[in-house]
Amino acid sequence: MRNSFFQPQRQSKTGIVLLFLYNIGIVIKNLWVLIVLFFVKKEKVESWMIIVAIIAAILILIVSAILQYFHFKYYIDDENEEFVIHEGIINTSVTKIKKKNIQEVNISQPFIHRFFNIYKLEIDTPGSSEKEVKISALTKQNAIDLKKYLLTEIAVEPLEKADDVLVNEEIKQPRSIKISTASILKYGITANYVRSFLAMVSLLIYGFSELSNVLKKVEFEKQLDYDTVEAEFLAFSIPVILGIVLVVILVGIIVNAVRTMIKFFNFKITENNQSFSFEYGLFNTRNSIVNKSKVQVITETQNWIQKKMKISYVKFLQIGKNEEEDEKNVAAVPGINNLEKEKLISTIWKENPVFENALKPNFRLIIVHTFQWIVLPLILVFAIEKELFIKYWFLAVTYIVLTELFILISFRNLRLFYNERFIRLKSGIWDVDNRTFEVEKLQTVKISQYFWQRKTNLGSITFYTSAGRFKMIALNFVKLKKLLNYCIYKIETD
């Protein structure tokens, strides 16, 4: 029998133990310095005093956990269509969230929750970078039922009617897509090269720095000339240095692949009438909901290797979310193949966008970026340290060649596609992003033109959505005006 959330509810009783462990973690996190000093100076303290202090601390934390459990209540206010949370021991608080404002309801099972077979539920509303409400200890059935109640599009009804709706939904078997372990592994191997490499380089630099400090402080019978050791190390041949770089890259790829496998293990997508849910994770199992009607932007990311493997990374930006958010707060699917991606997108937009019209930036953008990223930095280096510039001229040449290559690739990938219903912005160098959004969901559109762009008939356009703004520059200004007028017309009529 399903639980009625129209009456005040408490968390699972096993949540008392979880709250106790949380309290211990908070104490250690905030008072670890005092705890360390206490045990370091324990010779000045009687042993019985230590035992009494530990027992007293444990009793206080247990009582605190019990009081937190009994003072925490949640329920659905049927009359006002609100989700209400009562919490607090001394300073009590009441949180009310309008049901219509609830954007996401995520269910997760962190590692420690698995020992107690309980789940954590998080409720998110637009305009907040953090979760509005967290319920730390729910049974699986209660968490699933509560999620269904909060995310259903129709008004909350009495328990009997709501049960009928849920039963009818369960009769209709939802479609599901499972991302294979092989696909997730492919994505882990082929994604985040730059981040993995920089992380490993940072770790090596830190390691060498700490090692150098230790070597300088150690007293040897024979004085060690650290400068000589450093000079001999830097005198390695080019193949050895390249080998070290290659090892660093390989280790970074392996670490990233393992991290991706742990995070996205057993990734399953389940489609319902009004939403679809993501469930994944090895140690920390997560379950998040994406409401189809609230998706503002779909970003497809793919590099050259992933294109050959026919996999990509897809993000769904909903109202109040943007690409600057932490990746754990953004719904995304890693390693999805082209066929699965088409099915997933069609569940939201009822079609897969096809574009016949496209705008590409003017070649003058290459000149601007060349001056910005090559000419200006080299002039500054030459002005500050002329001898250094002359001595390492080959590094300057390498920098010019690589940077100009990146500029040309970026220019080649920069495109604006549009049709009657959708707009897509394509950009990137190695990881190419395709951001697609519906014209009717735009908040506003702006075009601009600097005075020096009038003769060349160039300008820029900015699209404002509930999930952030997106801009593209150096486009044909006459065509931008036509696109602007059409977008404004669609926004006003819809």
UniProtKB/TrEMBL annotation:
Record's keyword annotation contains Membrane: yes
Annotated InterPro entries: UCP026631, YdbS-like_PH
Domain named YdbS-like PH: residues: 69-150, 265-322, 412-486
Highest taxon of source: Bacteria
TM region(s), chain numbering: 20-41, 47-70, 184-208, 233-258, 365-384, 390-411
Annotated keywords: Membrane, Transmembrane, Transmembrane helix
Alphabetized PANTHER family for the sequence: UPF0699 TRANSMEMBRANE PROTEIN YDBS, UPF0699 TRANSMEMBRANE PROTEIN YDBT
Protein name as catalogued: PH domain-containing protein
Organism of origin: Chryseobacterium oryzae
